[in-house]
Write a structure and sequence with these properties.
This protein is of the alpha/beta class and 170 residues long. It has one domain: Rossmann fold, CATH 3.40.50. The chain is built from 7 helices and 4 strands; from the N terminus they run αβαβααβααβα. α2 links the parallel β1 and β2. It is globular. The two termini are 28 Å apart. The structure holds 4-nitrophenyl phosphate. Residues 20-26, 53, 57, 138, 140 line the site of 4-nitrophenyl phosphate.
Length: 170
């Protein structure tokens, strides 16, 4: 398969973009967990997960070691992440169109919302990661227990989104 075939193949995948501030703690954790749950649900070849930060401070860096340790202790693979910055292409399709953009907190949501015009269809693709609209709080300046709390919230959210994405694709 050529590189262009591969890109065309990717463009057909339902794409979920996960967003936090730095893309080194919350959204990378959610990225790994959601991919894991989608794979367990047999959806790995139909859904692509990406993640990014509203700030570009950590672009190219791996996950925060506390986030990685929390994931590893729970049996996930935290080694592949490299931080990215949010991308207009999610909405205008110029790079990788995202079908669903899930923000970890209200500030992240506002940051993504600011990239979108008043096109109602695009606005509707931006949601909070927690389906009750609550925030996944920023654990960066806190202690290790904050990361365990974040993982629990992320596992619940990823479970719920896996079911919703399955219904959407069926
Ligand atoms: P994240 O956490 O948004 O969950 O990746 C943070 C990471 C880095 C910073 C803040 C929050 N920072 O200030 O560098």
């Amino acid at each position: 398969m050529s590189a262009s075939d591969e890109r065309r193949g990717d463009a057909d995948l339902y794409t979920v973009a996960l967003v936090c501030l730095g893309n080194i703690c919350r959204s990378p954790m959610a990225h790994v967990v959601l991919e894991d749950k989608l794979a367990a649900a047999g959806l790995a070849d139909r859904v692509r997960v990406v993640s990014a930060g509203t700030a570009g401070w950590h672009v190219g860096k791996p996950m925060d070691p506390r986030a990685a340790a929390t994931l590893t202790a729970a049996g996930y693979d935290a080694t592949r992440h490299r931080a990215r910055h949010i991308d207009d292409g999610w909405f205008d399709g110029s790079t990788e169109r995202a079908d669903l953009v899930l923000a970890m907190d209200a500030s992240n949501h506002a940051g993504v919302r600011a990239m979108v015009t008043d096109d109602a269809q695009a606005v509707g693709r931006v949601r909070m990661f927690r389906q009750d609209g609550a925030e996944v709080p920023d654990p960066y300046y806190g202690g290790d227990e904050g990361f365990a709390d974040v993982l629990a919230m992320i596992e619940d959210g990823a479970e719920a989104w896996t079911e919703e994405i399955r219904r959407t694709l069926d």
